[in-house]
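Help wanted!
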Amino acid sequence: MTNLLNTILVIVLMLNLFALGTSRIVSVIRTVAAQGALLSLLPLLLHEHLTLAAALTVVPTFALKGIIIPGMMIHALRDVKIKREVEPLIGLQPSVILGALATVFALLFADQLPLTDAHSGALIVPTAIATVLAGFILLTTRFKALTQVVGYLVLENGIFIFGMLLVEAMPLVVEMGVLLDLFVGIFVICIIVNQINQAFASMDTRRLVSLKE
Amino acid sequence: MNVLFLLLIAIVLLGFSGVPGCLLSARSAAGQRVATALMAAGSLLGLACVAGILCAGSAPSLSLAWGFQQSRFAVAVDPLSAWFLIPVFIVPMLGSVYGLGYWKQAEHPANGRRLGLFFGLLAAAMALVVIARDGVLFLIAWEVMALAAYFAATAEDDKAEVRRAGWIYLIATHIGTLFLLALFALWRHATGSFALEAGHSFPAEAATTLFVLALIGFGFKAGLMPLHVWLPGAHANAPSHVSAVMSGVMLKMGVYGIVRMTALLPVGAVWWGPVLLAVGAATSVAGIAFAIGQRDLKRLLAYSSIENIGIIAMGLGLALLGREQHHAEWVLLGLGGALLHVWNHSLFKSLLFFNAGAVIHAAQTRDIDQMGGLAKRLPRVMALFVVGAAAICALPPLNGFASEWLLYVGLFRTLGLGGEAGAPAVALAAVALAMTGALAVACFVKVLGAVFLGTPRSEAGGHAHEPEAVMLMPMAALACGCVVIGLFPLGVMPLVAAAFQTWASHPAPLSVAASVPLKSLSVAGLALVGLAAALFLSLKLILRTKRVRQGVTWDCGYARPTGRMQYTGSSLGNSLVELTSFLLWPKHFRTALRGHFPRPSAFKSLVPDTVLDRLVMPLFRTTGRYLPKLRVLQQGQTHVYVLYILIVMIVLLVWGGMGS
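Answered by r_m:
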C-alpha cells in the first residue's frame, strides 16, 4: 500500500515541477487537473480498510478537481483568447529550480517534524509542503489571472494532502465544505477573468494596481 | 422593586424625550417643548423615586437575565448611587428648559432635533451608569453616554473647530473606555462574574491593578491632569447647556466610577490615597492656573471644572488614606467634602455655563477681551454670575465654602499625627487647596471685571439685552441651590453619613457635625446675608435722596477715552500667567519697536494647553509623518501579498522548528 501511495506522491511532486516549467496555460491547467485527479484517489490508499466516508469523498473530489474545475478554466481561457504566460517574473527554468529546491527543503524539513509512526514512512508530509510551496511560487511569479488561479489550485492540493492525515479525525462535512468553497471561488474567478479582460484589455493582474486607493 | 421600575421608566422617558421632536418639522417649536416636558416628567419622577428610596432607607436592587453571556441586567440604588442620581436628574432638566430660549428650534433647524435627541439620551445614559451593578451593563451605559455627549457637543459640526474638538473628545473617551474594558475583564477574572458587588477579597496585585485601571479609565472622563486633553475644547465648542451638563454632571460620572471602584475594592495599598491626593493637588492648581490664562470664556470655565475635579480627587484621596489607616474622621471629612463638592460643582458650574451662554448670546463672541460693560445691560445675569462665581471661589456663605471647609478641616486633622505614610501628600494637598482657592478668586475677578464691568469693547456688546425668562429661571433655580446648601449644609449630612456607610461598609462612628461646627456656619452665613442685605438697602435709601451723576470711570485726562483703552482680561491675568509660566508656557507674538517713529505694531499672547498642544499633538503629528512610510508594503499587487503570506509562513515554520 505504502509503495503505491508513495508512487502517486512522487508523481504529484513531478507534476508540480512540470506545472512550474510550462508556459502554455492549457498544459498547466491539464497538469493540475491530473494532479487533482490523482490526489482524489489518495483516501482509498491511505487506510487499511476502506471507510464509507473516505469512499464518499473520492467521487466529488475527483469530479471537481479532475473534470469540472479544469473544464471551467479551459472554457474561460478560450473566451479570453490567450495561450501563454508571456512574461513571468522569473524565467521558467529558474522557477523549476526553485520548485526543486522547495521540494528538497520540504523533504529535509519533514524529517525534523515529530510525526506519528503511521505517517513518518510515507511521503505525505513532504509532498504536502512541497506542493504548497509550488503553489506559492506559481502565485508570486505569474501575472496572468488564470495562472494565478492555477497557483491557488496547486496550493489547495497541498492543503488537501495535509488533510489526508486527518481524514479520520475531520468530519466529512468539513472536507466537502472546503471543496465547495474552492468550487465557488474558482467559478467566480472564471467569470471575473472575463470581466477583467474587458475592463483592462488585458489579463495582467498587475493592472489591478490602479484599483488601489 | 416597584420603585426601581418607576426609576427605570423615568430613565426611559429621559432617553426618548427627543424622539417625538424628530418626527416633527425641523423648525417646529412643538417638538422641543415636548422634549422638555418629557425631560421634566422623567426627571421629576426620578427625583421622587430617589427621595422615596432615601426616605425609606432601603437599597432596592433588581437582577434579570438578559441574554448576554455571564452578564445580567443588574441595577440597584444605594446611597452612593442616589447621591449621584440627584444632579443627573436636576441639571439636564434645567438645561433642557434653558435650551428653549438658548437653542431655539426655529433658529437651529439643522441641528436642533439632533441636539434634543442626544441631550435626552445623555441624561438617561448617565442615570443608568450610576445604577448599573453589572460590568457589561455599565460599559454599555458608559458608551451610550460618551457617544450621546459627542453628538450633543458637536451640534454645530459645520465649524471645523467644533469637529476638531469633537474628534479629540472621541479619541480620549475611547482610550478611557479601553482601560475600563480591561478593568471589567480583570474584575470578571478576579471575582468570577461581572456583578459589581462588594465583599470579594483580592490578591494585592490584582486590587492594585484594578485601582490603577480605574484611576486612568475614569480619570479620562473626569479630567484628571494630564488626562484632561479633551475637556477644554469640547466644553468650549458645545452649546452652553450641553457644556453645563457635561461639566456639571458627566465629569462626575468619572468621579462616581472612582468612588464606586474604591468602595468595591477592599482596603488597598498605602499609596492609593497619597497618589490620589497628589494627582488632585496637581490637577486643581494646574487647572485654575490654565483657567486664568484663557481668553475664551467657556474654555476658562472648562479649566475651572478641571480644578474642581482636582479638589474632589483630593477629598477622595483623604478618604482612602483614612480608610487605610483607620481614621474614620478623615474618611468622613474627605468623602463628605468630595461628595458635597460633586453636588456643589454641578450646581454652580452649570449656573456659570448657563450664564456664559447668556453672555455669549448677548455679546456674540466667546472672547472675554471683546466683552465688557455688560453689567448695565444684563444686570440679572450679572447678579446670578456673582452668586456662581462667589460659590466657585468658595466664599461664604455659599455652597462652595461648605464643601471645601470640610476638606480643609479634614486635611488639617491629619496634621500633628506626623510620621505616618502619606503625610507629605496631605501637606501638599492642603497647600494646593489654599492656593487653588486664591487663584480661583483671581480668575473670577478677572472674568467679572472684563466681562461685566467697564464699557463695551465691541459693537455687539453695546446692543446686548437681557435673556428671556426661560433662560433666567434655570439659572435662578441653580443659584437658589447654591445659597441653600451654603446656608444649611447640615441638612445634607444624613445623606453623607449614608454614603459613608456604603463606601466604607460600616456605619460612621461619628457625625460630620461633631467634628465641624456646621451650625455656626449657618448662623454666620445668615448673619452675612443679613449684613449684605442691610448694606444694600441702606445704599438704596441713601441714593434715593442724592442726585446721581453718570460719568466715565478714570478717564485719565484723555480727551476721548474709548472702550479699547480699558484693562483687558488678559492684562489682568498676565501677572499670574507669568508667575505660573513654568506650567503654562504662554506664547507671545510681538514685533520689536524700532526708531523714534515706530511703525504700527501688534502684540498677541495665548496660553495653549501644555499637554495637548505641546505633547500629544506633536507626538501624533510625528507619528503621522512616519507611519505613511509603511504604505510601501501596500503595493496593490496580489503577488506581493501572497509573497507576504509565504514569508510569514516560512518564518513561522522556522520559528516553530526552532522551538521544538
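OP: Thanks! One thing I noticed: Chain A touches chain B at residues 89, 109, 112-114, 133, 136, 139-143, 148, 151, 205-206, 208-212 (CB under 8 Å).
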